[in-house]
């Protein structure tokens, strides 16, 4: 699977995102009760933030396939919860609900997200902080090279702080 990326348009993409983030599958996104205007506002805030960015991942046909966010952990999400290193980039991704799951799709998405982040030579390490109970994403993270460091308490959740260096990602991409 090949994906491309484009910047999220908070107004144009709000309806699509609203359907994705309020679906029960997206419980860990913590927007279950969001109204359309809440989603618009949240992504307008991200669009205006120099330290947080949102992209849509697109299928080869241009159709939206997933949401990707990345942020500077020195300024967002993890401030005061760990000591960021130069080149650290925080990341979130969300695949939409579907009635027809495609085997390997989510793994292809996280692989594309990681490859996209490491295209920037300044990115040395990707940082994630998924909910400790999100076992499915822990397995995906491990598959692409993340190493869990420790549990941390964020205001909204208990999270598993994990890191993936460029080298670990590249090693994880080599077929066994």
Output the keywords:
176 residues; 5 helices; 28% helix; 7-stranded mixed β-sheet; alpha+beta
Structure description:
- It contains five helices and seven strands, in the order E-H-H-E-E-E-H-E-H-E-E-H.
- By secondary structure, it is of the alpha+beta class.
- Strands 1-2-3-4-5-7-6 form a seven-stranded mixed sheet, sandwiched between helices.
- Helices cover 28% and strands 26% of the residues.
- Strand 4, helix 3 and strand 5 (125-128) form a beta-alpha-beta unit.
- It has helices spanning 14-21, 36-47, 105-118, 135-143, 166-172; strands spanning 4-7, 52-58, 64-71, 88-94, 125-128, 147-153, 158-165.
Which segments are poorly predicted (pLDDT under 50) over 5 or more consecutive residues? none
Distance N to C terminus: 19 Å
Gyration radius over CA: 15 Å
| Average pLDDT number | 92
Helix content: 25-40%
What portion of residues belong to β-strands? 25-35%
Number of strands: 7
Please summarize the sheet with the most strands: 7 strands, mixed
Secondary structural class: alpha+beta
Strand order of the largest sheet: 1-2-3-4-5-7-6
Order of H and E elements: EHHEEEHEHEEH
The tally of helices reads: 5
Which descriptor suits the 3D outline? Answer: globular
């Amino acid at each position: 699977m090949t994906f491309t990326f484009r910047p999220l348009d908070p107004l144009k993409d709000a309806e699509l995102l609203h359907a994705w983030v309020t679906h029960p599958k997206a419980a860990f996104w913590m927007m279950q009760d969001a109204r359309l205007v809440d989603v618009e506002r949240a992504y307008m805030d991200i669009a205006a933030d120099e330290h947080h960015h949102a992209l849509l991942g697109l299928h080869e046909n241009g159709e939206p396939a997933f949401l990707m966010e990345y942020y500077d952990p020195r300024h967002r999400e993890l401030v005061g919860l760990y000591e960021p290193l130069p080149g650290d980039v925080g990341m979130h991704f969300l695949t939409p609900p579907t009635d027809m799951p495609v085997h390997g799709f989510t793994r292809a998405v996280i692989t594309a997200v990681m490859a996209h982040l490491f295209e920037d030579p300044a990115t040395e390490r990707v940082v994630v902080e998924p909910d400790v109970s999100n076992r499915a994403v822990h397995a995906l993270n491990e598959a692409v090279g993340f190493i869990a460091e420790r549990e941390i308490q964020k205001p909204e959740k208990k999270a598993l702080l994990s890191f993936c260096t460029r080298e670990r990602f590249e090693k994880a991409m080599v077929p066994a």
